[in-house]
Amino acid sequence: MPKQPRMPNMQQMLQQVQKMQQDMEVAQEQLKDEIVEASAGGGMVTVKISGDLNVKSIEIDPSAVDPEDVEILSDMVLAAVNEALRMAQELAARKLGGASGGLDMGNLGGLGLPGL
Fold it and tell me: What share of the chain in percent tops pLDDT 90?
């Protein structure tokens, strides 16, 4: 007669999920204070974005401003913002991934837990 699979301990699972949710909330709060910086055009445009994806500053070297070629400045700003966003998303993934403690959430992503 085959063995019956053990039922998961729901109380223990609930405690793990609650701890993970608390850890993720702490990690999300910490992300607000972390800043990533990206530049384009050899440093002519620099963008700083927080870990919670808020643009904090855009610095443009005055020599990058050419009234005859505004398009290139726009391209540099766009490139720097996109790179900073990518870096901030990587930072958030590392922080929030660690907060899950290796717990396989499977299809629990729809529970409304922060970061899922």
Answer: 46
